[in-house]
Amino acid sequence: MRINPSRRDLWNLSPFEARGFEERVVELSDGSRVTVARMGQGRPLVMVAGLSGGWEWLAPLADRLARRRGLEVWVTSLRGDDSQAQGWLGGSSRRSMSDYAGDLATVLNRLGLERPTIFGVSFGGAVVLEYAVTWPERLRGLILQGTEARFTQPLGARLARGILERYPLPQDNPFVNQFLRLLFGKAVEAGPLWEFVVERCWSVEQAELVNRLAALEAFDVSDRLDRIDAPTLVLAGARDVIVPPSRQKLLAQAIDGADFAVIPDAGHIGFLTHPGPIAHRVADCLNDPVRFV
């Protein structure tokens, strides 16, 4: 996979502020803090990041949506993304998916976003689904990528959590980092994009990753999807081996009136590797005068 030279600066975190991202720190009810980045003017779209990586994961897609699609994009990190190193498995408490959804509700209240469209990816998609079934009246629209109502392969999550709980893993271990290639769904060349993915995946403390995997194992909103009445779009990477398109299609079929689309050649992190096609789908969805009013 090669990167267009004109886009290489997006894989370096330092230019984000120069490109127009405004960072804010939002305080939660218990005094914890999360970072939120804003860019653009127009209809608001809130984006929620995944298991690891913080808001920076979604910066290239947010940049495209704000600059080319005329949206005001808010990208929020999760509680724990900004935590300081506490040592191996130290300083992080267990939280459920409903806790993360409650954090999202607090962030939206603090920002004055009463009824936005929310786009969640991967673990962030699970957070957004929990939010959607808990506060359906506070949702204008719902967009999901790389997620499902109940993760149907808990063995993999339990295995990953077991390893992370028992062994402090070096971030520069080539063997461990090879597993990150599954996020692409295909071979990927060494270079700026690969380095960005590795850096973002290890940006969250190991203890926090353990807690999030535990929350994911317990997550299940499959019996509450009928509460969602907002327009919904489910996007799946054709090469997603983490949450295959077939399972994401089942999610779309379970939400009344939801649309489903496959992004060709994209893997689980299609939001990062294929921002153009995803931005196109999102913009088309938001510009539907009948559904998104």
TrEMBL record:
Q: Does the keyword Hydrolase apply?
A: yes
* All residue ranges annotated as the AB hydrolase-1 domain in the record: 44-275
Tell me the domain of life: Bacteria
Q: Single GO molecular-function term?
A: hydrolase activity
Which controlled-vocabulary keywords does the entry list? Hydrolase
The record's section on InterPro entries has:
AB_hydrolase (IPR050471), AB_hydrolase_1 (IPR000073), AB_hydrolase_fold (IPR029058)
Q: Does the keyword Hydrolase apply?
A: yes
Q: What is this protein called?
A: Alpha/beta hydrolase fold protein
Species of provenance: Isosphaera pallida (strain ATCC 43644 / DSM 9630 / IS1B)
Taxonomic lineage: Bacteria, Pseudomonadati, Planctomycetota, Planctomycetia, Isosphaerales
